[in-house]
């Protein structure tokens, strides 16, 4: 893009539709991943290892979707920060970015724990103690209330 003096100026990359697309994409991927993870691991953390035979494929699909949801979330945060630009308070910007990164870190940690249950078991189901640990730690990092039995 050229200005009146004939020099070139850099155009700011702003796309309000990009924020909408990224937000919707994040919501769809994240919701699908959470639903698959929740239904694959079951409701009761102390049910044992019966979930492994029927829910392992759902957990694997959820683990594949989660990084794409994280990328869409970072894209959403970046576009929103770019749109607000100079109108945004520096403290608010830091809190928004920091809490977004903390949220993604907790989501990825809970996904890693769920994936660890699959890897730990290999072809046979993990022990009941390992399953309870995995479910309680996943619940503690991904849901606000968690399971009351895990407290």
Keywords:
4 helices; mainly alpha; 151 residues
Task: Report what the structure shows.
The chain has helices at 16-41, 51-84, 90-121, 128-142. It has 151 residues and is mainly alpha-helical. It has one domain.
What is the overall pLDDT average? 75
Beta content comes to under 5%
The coarse silhouette is elongated
Q: Number of helix segments?
A: 4
| Backbone CA Rg | 20 Å
Sheet of most strands: none
Unreliable runs: 7-13
Distance between the termini: 59 Å
Question: Level of helix content?
Answer: over 70%
- The secondary-structure class comes to mainly alpha
How many distinct domains? 1
Quantity of strands, as a count: 0
Strand-helix topology:
Blueprint: H1 16-41, H2 51-84, H3 90-121, H4 128-142
Concise account of the structure shown:
The protein has 151 residues and is mostly helical. It has one domain (16-144). It contains four helices and no strands.
